[in-house]
Amino acid sequence: STLLYSIENLRARVYSIVDNVARVILLDADNPLFMYDLANKLIKIEIFEKCQESYASELKHEERINMRFYEGLEGSKSQNEWIQIENIEKKIKKLHFNRDNPFSLRIMTPIEMRLLGMTKCLKFSKLKTDRQSINRIMLDQEPNLKCSSLVVAHRTADLDQKEIVLRNTCLFPKIKGLVSLVLLAFSPEVEFRYDRKSLKYTGALCGLGFDPIKRRPLYTENDVEEVFEVDFVDNDIKLLNSFRFLVNMLIGSKSSSESYLKNPEVLKNMQSKSRASILKLIAEKRNLKENPMHFNKEFIWNQIPEDHLVSLNDDDRRMYESRKNDKTFYMPLRVVNFAKLKQQPRC
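and the corresponding structure tokens:
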């Protein structure tokens, strides 16, 4: 269409501002006597599709109209009615296109999700999905639910690890605390982070743990320092440990896994119990924390004194003992003794 080729200058009229995101009406400012709504023109030529404005945006728009009305009664004019788009050529190389050359315009939307690496080695890497992936652009289906989403993918990386391309991506449902639950359920070893003042869990270091003989972490580049967005209590940890115990029985050693595989009824019963534990954890209604707390000493193991931990029960003790014979894959989650800490003077 000649429409796109003719536009060189734009003006944006503010429609609403919601959560520090400005929604604007783009106008062609080349002809001040006939400034038309660019979006409507693009809808007509089927480049854009019309969608319903959110209720919050419409409410803020009405507030702006009422504000301008009262300002008019007072004989003043709003200085923020128009925003001139400055330096637009730096961002999208001007809205002036050559008919002979194809172009692509990358439009970011407020509901487009940003990808962040979880492991230590990906903490400062740039992540992007493969162009052929069905999740090339991931949109937040529930933008009002302010919790993290989980994306699992196969990755290929440059040698310098600065740019990671994700392939075979799988976007999980947006559930409060799901990211933390997955890490707590499937990480071989977990060390909780907690706050001495509030006596609550604030996060967890997840990975392969610490080698006491060599006195260093095992493959620390794959460790994950998770900050909890929701609260977890001791009953949650009890359910997680029961799940981890069942998984250990199935995959902890070749002999034990073979014995269960030979008995379909026992295997079915174990699968049913482990499934029930996970579903109960996911179904639990949780509130998001207002201010999630980050741990100062990230990716450092052995930060909890032994006397601050609850003593192991029989099942957990057996898991620790079997580790000596390399028969344990998942170590039990150690519960912090908050009752004991409560009696101690707080810092």
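(Above: one complete record from the training split.) Residues 227 and 294 are 6 Å apart (CA to CA).
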